[in-house]
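Checklist before submission:
- one chain only
- standard amino acids only
- sequence pasted in full

Submission:
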Amino acid sequence: MPIAFAYTLIVLLIITSILLTMLILLHRGKGGGMSSMFGGGVTSSLAGSSVAEKNLDRYTVLVGVVWFACIVGLGLWLKLAQTS
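Returned file contents:
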């Protein structure tokens, strides 16, 4: 496989890592954990989830799947590069 494939996966991995970190930090704390220690438990909980929260969940899962695929792709590429 060409080396450009590995560089593309590395760049995509860096971008998705940053996006995944940002998306996870945007989630609202559910309380009872570390988030409540820093003032996250003070907010009142509304009944049900809003559309924005559902979309944030979907984007987080999508970016997480792409991140995982990059990790697996890089691992496979490294294994194939060592045998060649």
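Reviewer check: DSSP finds three helices and no strands in the chain.
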